[in-house]
């Protein structure tokens, strides 16, 4: 069944209940596998069977719920629309009248018939949006913010109209200013909310700006400047010093130094020469190259990153389900509370108009907008901060789980160490071959492996100018070694001493002095051990400080490695890791992680190789460090750009702060609404004040989320 994944931009949503309604309708369709609506980003992520439905039909389904859907376009910052300026211009006379009432100047008060005319224009022209939304919401079987605003403002306008028609000379008892101000504040609040939400998408916007809008394309014997949209695969382009690379391509002439920090997290420029790849968004710090386009737009590495970030920001965290549940029942409950407030106030004899105003204030203050924004606003900001610091979370649940971890399991080689070991000694175990031949044979098998120790052996052979043999019938045992056939030699096995059948290690003093805490790789030919080499790796310079910061934050660190126990214990001692395990197979690591999880720990696994993948999959969170294999990256819940261990701390700290912010937002939104409802029911908030307070609550939640963008990860 071909499943298509597509993003749509949704228009017309006013609160989380709107997003819930769209999800409810789409997820009932047999052709839809999953549909998730993000209220904060105003996007719909849908997976569907394209043999049963189409994009146009999905748009039609969304339209039936009362909202618009178009192929996804990023939210953009907009100027205050002229309609909003007009609305506030229409409300100005009411502000003047209210000032007149406060200072006791009847000259500033406007005639009731003028109030009626202005209020009616506002109610019809600007209230229509709420009526349309309310009707669509009710038809969909749910109630949203539009229902609250429509009921409240209509009640005020209708009652004030009734009083004016029955008592034409009365200046008191009419509340046209309340209906106008409520609509004005709600519309202004939604505009400010939109403006603030777009600030959370700055990271995506910054990535977009990495690609130049114009580029030099080869035309005949020269180059002409064309728009980036005109570039296709196969076109030949030119980039000079200071230029941004427009697309992914292969260098066909020239050489340059390119800054690829947006892809690797490393600020040091990378040398580019003929035959090497250059990537979209890179900046040439020196030199000039002509390159042929291999991938454009969304197919480039940068485009893939942008798609991943947009998808991650649009996905829904598990903690957001709480807000969805509350929002689904919140509006009906609020309407019931408003009716109860109206009835109790009438029973207490406060008067019809007072009871009505208090009930309307309850309706207006209780809009669940802040509750719906609490989680996605923090997620957008947190994802953006993480991306800027070289941490790419796969989706929102991955970030959420990373914020809950209390234990981090580290692999050793390539994670805590530089992953660039060097061969320090080769010890022959046979007189059949000399040391160079033994190294040549060992490297000939290791060329089929993907591991830092294998790379070190190959580099040692190449440094001596040794030509490698080709091998056949290669068989790999993850975490142990490889076996292959070399013509004229026989079956050659390279791997751990145990893998090649060594029952004991060399005992001469020179070997013991050189290899007591080193990584060991052995070789056997036709079952007979022939050589063993010792390799030493260097601990990353930042490792000790990063592990100390994690421990200070209450995170337990564990070291699990397939390397020999002596080498693992040496690293553990230097880094003050009390829980360290060596000579672990991938199955051993998996079992150990599963044991930690079953014991109630929230575990993250940090690794870079195939042998780490099973344990990474078993952990609640997993981080693939820079240079990780494709298997490790695809398994990981977050990919860390660059090779610095600082990114592990960044990932944890950003996720933890994001989760804390979500909890703060949810608590604030609930408490704010509850207190506001009580104050409104008691008559301590007028409808106008309630409308302003409701708008303020949404802005407050968004601003709290945006505090994440000011995180100083170097000092925290």
SSE layout:
Blueprint: E1 3-11, H1 16-27, E2 32-38, E3 43-49, H2 55-64, E4 68-71, H3 82-103, H4 112-125, H5 128-139, H6 145-166, H7 176-199, H8 202-209, E5 214-219, E6 222-227, E7 236-239, E8 248-259, H9 261-264, E9 270-272, E10 277-278, E11 283-295, H10 301-314, H11 320-347, H12 352-365, H13 369-388, E12 391-393, H14 396-402, E13 407-410, H15 412-416, E14 422-428, H16 435-446, H17 452-463, E15 472-477, E16 481-486, E17 490-495, H18 509-515, E18 519-525, E19 528-536, H19 543-552, E20 556-560, H20 565-574, E21 579-581, H21 586-598, E22 603-607, H22 613-618, E23 621-624, H23 630-635, E24 638-640, H24 646-681, H25 687-706
Parallel strand pairs: 13-20, 13-22, 20-21, 22-23, 23-24
Antiparallel strand pairs: 1-3, 1-4, 2-3, 5-6, 5-7, 7-11, 8-9, 8-10, 8-11, 12-24, 14-19, 15-16, 16-17, 17-18, 18-19
Helix pairs in contact: 3-4, 3-7, 4-6, 4-7, 5-6, 6-7, 6-12, 7-25, 10-13, 11-12, 11-13, 12-24, 12-25, 13-24, 13-25, 14-24, 16-17, 24-25
In angstroms, what is the radius of gyration?
A: 33 Å
- Helical residues, percent: 40-55%
Q: What is the overall shape?
A: elongated
Low-confidence stretches: none
Strand count, sense and closure of the main sheet?
7 strands, antiparallel
Number-wise, the strands total 24
> Helix tally?
25
Structural class: alpha+beta
Arithmetic mean of pLDDT: 82
Distance between the termini: 48 Å
- Range of strand content: 15-25%
What count of structural domains? 5
């Amino acid at each position: 069944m071909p499943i298509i994944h597509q993003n749509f931009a949704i228009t017309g949503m006013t609160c989380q209940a709107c997003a819930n309604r769209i999800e409810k309708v789409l997820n009932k369709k047999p052709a839809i596998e999953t549909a998730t609506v993000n209220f904060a980003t105003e996007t719909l992520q849908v997976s569907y069977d394209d043999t049963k439905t189409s994009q146009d039909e999905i748009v039609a389904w969304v339209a039936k719920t009362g909202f618009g859907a178009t192929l996804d376009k990023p939210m953009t910052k907009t100027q205050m629309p002229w309609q909003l300026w007009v609305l506030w211009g229409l409300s100005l006379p009411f502000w003047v009248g209210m000032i007149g009432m406060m200072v006791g100047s009847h000259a500033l008060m406007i005639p009731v018939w003028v109030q009626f005319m202005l209020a009616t224009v506002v109610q019809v022209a600007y209230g229509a949006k709420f009526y349309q939304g309310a009707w669509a919401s009710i038809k969909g079987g749910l109630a949203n913010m539009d229902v609250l605003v429509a009921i409240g403002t209509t009640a005020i306008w209708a009652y004030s109209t009734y009083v004016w028609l029955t008592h034409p000379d009365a200046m008191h008892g009419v509340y046209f200013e309340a209906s106008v101000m409520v609509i004005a504040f709600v519309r202004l609040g939604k505009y400010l909310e939109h403006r603030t939400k777009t600030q959370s998408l700055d990271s995506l916007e910054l990535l977009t700006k990495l690609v130049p809008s114009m580029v030099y394309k080869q035309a005949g014997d020269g180059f002409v400047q064309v728009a980036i949209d005109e570039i296709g695969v196969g076109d030949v382009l030119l980039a000079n010093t200071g230029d941004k690379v427009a697309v992914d391509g292969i260098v066909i002439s020239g050489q340059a130094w390119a800054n690829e920090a947006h892809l690797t997290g490393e600020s040091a420029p990378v040398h580019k020469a003929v035959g090497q790849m250059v990537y979209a968004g890179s900046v040439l710090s020196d030199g000039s190259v002509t390159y042929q386009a291999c991938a454009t737009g969304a197919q480039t590495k940068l485009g893939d990153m942008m798609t991943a970030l947009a998808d991650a920001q649009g996905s829904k965290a598990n903690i957001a389900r709480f807000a969805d549940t509350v929002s689904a029942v919140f509006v009906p409950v609020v309407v019931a509370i408003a009716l109860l407030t109206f009835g109790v106030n009438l029973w207490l004899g406060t008067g019809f108009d007072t009871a009505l105003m208090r009930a309307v204030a309850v309706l207006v203050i209780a809009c669940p907008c802040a509750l719906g924004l609490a989680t996605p606003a923090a997620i957008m900001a947190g994802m953006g901060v993480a991306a800027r610091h070289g941490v790419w979370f796969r989706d929102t649940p991955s970030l959420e789980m990373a914020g809950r971890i209390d234990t981090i399991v580290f692999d050793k080689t390539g994670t805590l160490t530089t992953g660039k070991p060097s061969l320090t000694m080769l010890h022959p175990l046979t007189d059949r071959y000399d040391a160079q031949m033994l190294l040549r044979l060992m490297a000939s098998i290791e060329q089929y492996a993907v591991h830092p120790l294998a790379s070190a052996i190959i580099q040692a052979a190449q440094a001596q100018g040794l030509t490698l043999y080709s091998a056949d019938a290669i068989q790999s045992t993850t975490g142990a070694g490889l076996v292959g056939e070399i013509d004229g030699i026989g079956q050659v096995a390279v791997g751990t001493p145990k893998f090649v059948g060594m029952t004991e290690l060399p005992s001469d003093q020179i070997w013991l002095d050189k290899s007591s805490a080193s990584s060991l790789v052995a070789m056997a030919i036709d079952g007979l051990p022939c050589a063993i080499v010792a390799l030493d790796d260097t601990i990353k310079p930042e490792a000790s400080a990063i592990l100390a910061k994690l421990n200070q934050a209450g995170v337990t660190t564990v070291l699990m490695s397939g390397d020999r126990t002596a080498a693992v214990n040496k690293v553990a001692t230097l880094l003050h890791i009390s829980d360290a395990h060596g000579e672990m197979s991938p199955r051993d690591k998996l079992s150990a992680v599963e044991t930690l999880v079953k014991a109630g720990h929230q575990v993250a696994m940090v690794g870079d190789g195939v042998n780490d993948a099973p344990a990474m999959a078993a952990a609640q969170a997993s981080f693939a460090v820079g240079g990780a294999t494709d298997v490790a990256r695809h398994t990981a819940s977050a990919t860390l750009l660059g090779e610095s261990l600082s990114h592990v701390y960044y990932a944890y700290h950003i996720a933890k702060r994001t989760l804390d912010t979500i909890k703060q937002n949810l608590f604030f939104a609930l408490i704010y609404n509850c207190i506001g409802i009580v104050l409104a029911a008691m008559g301590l908030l007028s409808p106008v004040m309630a409308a302003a307070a409701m708008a303020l609550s949404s802005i407050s939640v968004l601003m709290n989320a945006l505090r994440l963008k000011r995180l100083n990860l170097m000092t925290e």
